[in-house]
Amino acid sequence: MLTRYTETAALFVLMTPDKHGVGIVVLPKRGAAEPADVDRLRAVLDRNATRV
Fold first, then answer.
1. Contact 15, 23 (CB under 8 A)
2. pLDDT tens for residues 1-52?
3. Are strands 50-51 and 4-7 parallel, antiparallel or unpaired?
4. CA–CA separation, 42 vs 7, rounded Å?
5. Which residues of 29-50 are buried (b: 16+ CB within 10 A; e: fewer)?
6. Spatial distance between the Cα atoms of 19 and 38, rounded to a whole number of angstroms
7. What is the DSSP letter of 44?
8. What phi, psi does 10 have (nearest 5°)?
9. Residues 6 or more apart in contact with residue 37 via CB below 8 angstroms
10. 28 forms bridges with which residues in the sheet?
11. For 28, 29, 35, 47, which has the most beta carbons within 10 A of its beta carbon?
């Protein structure tokens, strides 16, 4: 359902395939317990979504 994502210094933003951005999920990086958790999430997103 969330097939696209982008990354900022502080956030991961997951988006639906609709180019008009109808659905988004915002994941703040500060919620990660360790920096390695951010790397693991990035790896999962790279395998399952398209970075825009």
1. yes
2. 899 999 999 999 999 988 776 799 999 999 999 999 999 999 999 999 999 9
3. parallel
4. 9
5. beeeeeeeebeebeeebeeebe
6. 26
7. H
8. -115, -10
9. none
10. 11
11. 29
The token duo for 30 is 């500060």
Alpha carbons 51 and 37: distance in angstroms, whole number:
18
Q: How many helices (H) and strands (E) does the chain have?
A: 1, 4
Residue listed under structure tokens 């997103």: 45
Q: What is the number of residues in the chain?
A: 52
CA distance 2 to 36: 23
